[in-house]
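Ops channel
N.P.: pipeline sanity check, posting one input/output pair.
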C-alpha cells in the first residue's frame, strides 16, 4: 500500500524551524516561524496565562467531554473580544461561534462548511498569502483563485489591482481577507480601504471570510478588529477564523474559534448545525485546556487587565523594533516600509540566493520569500542583522 508514495518536501515554515534547531552556531538568529519572542529570544508563557493555569489546576474537577462546539463561555467571550461587546450582530443574535483546534482548525472547518453550502465554491486569496492557506482551503476541495495584493516594488498594498481582480468574482464567491497584520507582508488595509472592499462585496454579493490570527499585535485589540467589526455590521453573512496562538501565546495548546455570522438567528442555527456535524466527523471535539485558560482570563477582570497590559507591551515592542530596524537599515537602502507595516511580518525584498547567504554565512534564518518575523529581532541582534544584510546587498 505505501510503496508508491514519494517523500514530500517539508513545509517551508516548519522545515525552517527544524533547520534552525539543528544549527549549532550560538549567534544564530531566528526570523522564521511567527512566534513572539522577548529580548532574550524566549517565547514566555504570559503571566495571565500562568495564573489562569494555576487556578485551573486547583479547581478543575473533570476531564469529561464538552462537545463539538467546545466551551460555551469561551465562545461567548471570544466573540465579544473580536466584535466588541454590544456589537449589533451580537445583539441581533446573528453570531454563532465554535471553539476550534487553533486557527488552522477554524480555517479548515470553515472550508468544509463552505463546501457543504456550495460544493463548487471559489475562494479568492491574496497574492501573497500565508503558506498554509491554500493547502487548508484547497485540501477541502474548494477552488482557489488569487487576487493581487502587494505591489512588490513598494511592498505596500496594490489596492487598485486588488479591487480590479475582485470585480471579476461571481456572486457567491468567497473572499479571504487578513483581519490585520497581513501574513506574510505586514501591509494592511486602511479603514477607508476596508470600507471600499465592504462596498464591493455588498454590491457583488460575495462572502467575506476573514482570518484574524494576530488581533492585538498590530495596533491594539480594537483597532486590529476594525475590518471584522465593519463587515459584521454591514453585511448579512461573514465567516471569521481566529486564533489565540499569538495574542495569548498558546501556540501548542491549539486554541482558536470559528464564527459564522448569519443574516438572522434562524439561519445561524441551521448553519451551525451543519458545521457541528462536520466537526463531529472530523475531530469530534476541540481540545479543552487552552480555551479554558482564555475563558478564565476574559471572565476575570484582574486577569483580563494583566493580559491587556502584557499584550500591549508586546505590541509596542514590535512597533519599536520596526522603527529601530528600518533606521538601522537606512545605509543599505530605503526600508521605511518596515516601519509603516504592522504585526510580526515584513518582506525584506531580497532574492532566495541572498536569503541563503544570510542563512549559510551569517546564521540568520528567514523564509525563502524573505519574510522575516520582526519579533525575532532584539536590541542585541538588530544591528548585526542590519550589517549582514547591508553586506549581502553590497556584493
Ligand atoms: C507563521 O506564519 O509562521 C505562523 O503562522 C506559524 C505557522 O503555523 O505557519
Amino acid at each position: 500500500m505505501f510503496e508508491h508514495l514519494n517523500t514530500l518536501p517539508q513545509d517551508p515554515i516548519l522545515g525552517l524551524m527544524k533547520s534552525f534547531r539543528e544549527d549549532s552556531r550560538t549567534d544564530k538568529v531566528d526570523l522564521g516561524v511567527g512566534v513572539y519572542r522577548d529580548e532574550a529570544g524566549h517565547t514566555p508563557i504570559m503571566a495571565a496565562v500562568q495564573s489562569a493555569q494555576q487556578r485551573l489546576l486547583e479547581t478543575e474537577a473533570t476531564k469529561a467531554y464538552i462537545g463539538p462546539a467546545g466551551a460555551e463561555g469561551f465562545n461567548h467571550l471570544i466573540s465579544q473580544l473580536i466584535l466588541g461587546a454590544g456589537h449589533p450582530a451580537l445583539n441581533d443574535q446573528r453570531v454563532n461561534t465554535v471553539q476550534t483546534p487553533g486557527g488552522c482548525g477554524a480555517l479548515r472547518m470553515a472550508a468544509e462548511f463552505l463546501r457543504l453550502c456550495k460544493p463548487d465554491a471559489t475562494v479568492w486569496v491574496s497574492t501573497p498569502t500565508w503558506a498554509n492557506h491554500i493547502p487548508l482551503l484547497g485540501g477541502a476541495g474548494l477552488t482557489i483563485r488569487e487576487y493581487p495584493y502587494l505591489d512588490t516594488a513598494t511592498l505596500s498594498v496594490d489596492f487598485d489591482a486588488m479591487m480590479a481582480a475582485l470585480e471579476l468574482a461571481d456572486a457567491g464567491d468567497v473572499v479571504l481577507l487578513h483581519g490585520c497584520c497581513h501574513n506574510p507582508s505586514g501591509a494592511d488595509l486602511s479603514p477607508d480601504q476596508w470600507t471600499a472592499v465592504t462596498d464591493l462585496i455588498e454590491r457583488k454579493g460575495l462572502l467575506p471570510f476573514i482570518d484574524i490570527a494576530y488581533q492585538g499585535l498590530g495596533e491594539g485589540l480594537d483597532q486590529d478588529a476594525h475590518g471584522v467589526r465593519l463587515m459584521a455590521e454591514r453585511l448579512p453573512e461573514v465567516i471569521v477564523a481566529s486564533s489565540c496562538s499569538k495574542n495569548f501565546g498558546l501556540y501548542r495548546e491549539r486554541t482558536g474559534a470559528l464564527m459564522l455570522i448569519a443574516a438572522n438567528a434562524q439561519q445561524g442555527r441551521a448553519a451551525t448545525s451543519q458545521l457541528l456535524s462536520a466537526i463531529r466527523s472530523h475531530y469530534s471535539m476541540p481540545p479543552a485546556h487552552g480555551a479554558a485558560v482564555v475563558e478564565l482570563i476574559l471572565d476575570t477582570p484582574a486577569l483580563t487587565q494583566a493580559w491587556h497590559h502584557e499584550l500591549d507591551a508586546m505590541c509596542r515592542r514590535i512597533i519599536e523594533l520596526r522603527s529601530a530596524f528600518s533606521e538601522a537599515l537606512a545605509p543599505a537602502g530605503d526600508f521605511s516600509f518596515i516601519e509603516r507595516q504592522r504585526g510580526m511580518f515584513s518582506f525584506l525584498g531580497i532574492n532566495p540566493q541572498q536569503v541563503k547567504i544570510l542563512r549559510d554565512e551569517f546564521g540568520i534564518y528567514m523564509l525563502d520569500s524573505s519574510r522575516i518575523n520582526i519579533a525575532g529581532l532584539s536590541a542585541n541582534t538588530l544591528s548585526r542583522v542590519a550589517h549582514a544584510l547591508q553586506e549581502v546587498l553590497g556584493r
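N.P.: looks fine end to end. The mean pLDDT is 97.
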